[in-house]
């Protein structure tokens, strides 16, 4: 497993993951988004990567398996968000992607508090 910073060329990949039905169900905003809106958000997020946001892509060989994003809320406080490639789900990558992201964040930033909000969803049948 390796980790790298996201770039604009990841836009279509992240867009497809973001609009996946399970991703939307687990997100604060469960609406489908348009590509133009996603690309605008990603461009702005990439500009913020030196200051208030950092986005990493986790890969196995050349296969992207997940994205981990950290949003700075206060000087040393970050919120973590992850999304796993829909084709890589069910393989226990979530904790590995999160842990790898936290280790990389510690190299890049002076984070003291990292937290996540977990959305409760209805039982799926």
Secondary structure topology:
Elements lengths: L1 E4 L5 H8 L2 H6 L8 H13 L5 E8 L2 E12 L2 E8 L8 H16 L4 E3 L10
Parallel strand pairs: 4-5
Antiparallel strand pairs: 1-2, 2-3, 3-4
Written description of the protein model:
It contains four helices and five strands. With 125 residues, the chain is α+β, with helices and mostly antiparallel strands. A five-stranded mixed β-sheet has the order 1-2-3-4-5. Strand 4, helix 4 and strand 5 form a beta-alpha-beta unit. It is globular.
Question: What's a quick, concise take on this entry?
Answer:
The protein is α+β, with helices and mostly antiparallel strands and 125 residues long. Helices cover 34% and strands 28% of the residues. It is globular, with a radius of gyration of 14 Å.
Main attributes?
125 residues, alpha+beta, 5-stranded mixed β-sheet, globular
Order of strands, main sheet, comes to: 1-2-3-4-5
Which band does the percent of strand residues land in?
A: 25-35%
Treating each run of at least 4 consecutive H or I residues as one helix, how many helices? 4
**How confident is the prediction overall: mean pLDDT?**
89
The residue fraction in helices comes out at: 25-40%
Low-confidence stretches: none
Question: The biggest beta sheet, please?
Answer: 5 strands, mixed
Termini separation comes to: 33 Å
Structural class: alpha+beta
Query: What is the N-to-C succession of helices and strands?
Result: EHHHEEEHE
């Amino acid at each position: 497993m390796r980790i790298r910073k996201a770039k604009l060329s990841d836009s279509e990949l992240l867009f497809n993951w973001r609009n996946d039905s399970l991703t939307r169900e687990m997100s604060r905003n469960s609406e489908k988004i348009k590509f133009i809106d996603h690309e605008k958000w990603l461009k702005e997020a990439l500009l913020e990567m030196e200051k208030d946001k950092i986005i990493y892509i986790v890969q196995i060989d050349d296969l992207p398996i997940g994205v981990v994003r950290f949003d700075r809320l206060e000087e040393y406080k970050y919120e973590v968000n992850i999304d796993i490639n829909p084709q890589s789900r069910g393989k226990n990558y979530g904790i590995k992607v999160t842990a790898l992201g936290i280790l990389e964040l510690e190299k890049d930033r002076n984070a003291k508090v990292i937290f996540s909000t977990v959305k409760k969803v209805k039982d799926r049948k």
